[in-house]
Amino acid sequence: MKKLPFHYGWLIVFTGTLTLFSCLGLARFAFGMLLPSMGAGLELAYDQMGYLGTGNFSGYLFAVAITPTVLNKLRPRTTISVGLFLVATTLAGMSQANFFWQLLLLYVLTGVGSGLANISTMVLIAHWFRREKRGLAAGLMVFGNGLGIIFSGLMVPLLNQNYAHNGWRVSWLLLAGITFSISLLAAFLVRNEPESLGLDPVGSKTPFSGEELRYSGSTKSSRVLISLGLLYMAFGATYMVYGTFVVTSMVEEYGFSEVVAGRFWSWVGFFSLFSGVVFGTLSDRLGRKSGLIIVFAVQTLAYLLAGSGLGAAALLLSVFLYGIAVWAVPAIMTAAVGDYLGVTKAAAGFSFITFFFAAGQTIGPAIAGMLAEHSGSFSPAFLLSALITGVAILFALSLPQPAES
């Protein structure tokens, strides 16, 4: 292979960014933008909207359970490509669906593909980057999520205007085509480890960090992983409530037009572009514990403002706070698992804590949908999210302090 002017690890990050752009940014976060028009076209109730979100996360949860086994057989490169192909196929199917049960089945399978692609992509960071660069690398990868939100926030209203009641169908079909193209690119560019190209991981050569020496292979490693998993569950149970229902809340409770709501959602995407890099780098410097405490504090304020009913100004501030912190937790968690367990156990460790994350986001939208159906408002769901992340701040204090490298 021709020598590149930069380390191939950064090309892995670029491919990972595109992978997350498609498997999460488009397949998952465009869902909230498409929900009002799709719900109106198929006459979906609030609880059915919540069940669709839960179905997607149930598929993701299944993928979490099988990904370590799949990775052992197929390795990350093939697993990512297969996962993205499954996402593309099911999104194309959703564009043709006419009934709730069809959407539910297809979106469950979308979740399976998203999980396979996402977990396999994030595992690559432990192989391609040493500790001092993992937070930055993970932060750059989750950049793709924000790009997906921006794209959907601008694209969906435009297609709805041009194609009227069929706009949501055209949107799903377009997202399927983009995801299929990225699946081919991932198959071409991804490499499973730097050794296959005769390279070392990105970062200076140093012995294992104090964290790795202290926790890897010890009974404390299980406790740390469970703690990280519970925090990841709190994130999963709350961030997707906001991501799924905030646009619907803007349209149906605040009286915003779909175009204006789309612009708000695009601002979420714009602000989120910085979340992974800012907080990932911050956690590289201050430690994963401090990074998580700061992130959960910002998210708590965002959910409180969204549920306060104080008007558009409070909602705009909520959008800013949600966006600036939304991808910080995945970035920090990805780096933390590599720090605590080392490269060889990173895949199993990340899958373990992602199981908690997937469980949280599986129940979150369903509970929020039922609360909204009962109360006629999404404010109780947003306030409950603030309570959960507030508790997460206290729980994060129990994490062990990062040892000096």
Give the structure's gist in a few sentences.
By secondary structure, this protein is mainly α.
Give the H and E element order.
HHHHHHHHHHHHHHHH
Radius of gyration (CA) equals: 20 Å
In angstroms, what separates the terminal alpha carbons? 34 Å
Number of H/I helices = 16
Unreliable parts: 207-216
The whole-number mean of residue pLDDT values reads 83
Q: Main beta sheet, described?
A: none
Tell me the count of domains.
1
Per CATH, the class reads Mainly Alpha
CATH topology: Growth Hormone, Chain: A
Structural class: mainly alpha
Describe what you observe in this structure:
With 405 residues, the chain is mostly helical. It is globular, with a radius of gyration of 20 Å. The protein has a single domain (8-195, 208-396), classed as Growth Hormone, Chain: A, CATH 1.20.1250.20. Helix 1 (8-26) packs across helix 6, helix 3 (46-94) crosses helix 7 and helix 9 (219-252) packs parallel to helix 15. Residues 207-216 have low confidence and may be disordered. The chain contains 16 helices and no strands. It has helices at 8-26, 29-42, 46-94, 100-128, 131-141, 143-163, 167-189, 210-215, 219-252, 258-272, 275-286, 288-308, 312-325, 328-341, 346-375, 379-396. 81% of the residues lie in helices and 0% in strands. InterPro entries: MFS_4 (IPR010645), MFS_dom (IPR020846), MFS_trans_sf (IPR036259). Keywords: Membrane, Transmembrane, Transmembrane helix. GO terms for molecular function: transmembrane transporter activity. Pfam families: MFS_4 (PF06779). The chain crosses the membrane at residues 7-31, 51-71, 83-101, 107-129, 136-158, 170-190, 224-244, 264-283, 290-306, 312-337, 349-372, 378-399.
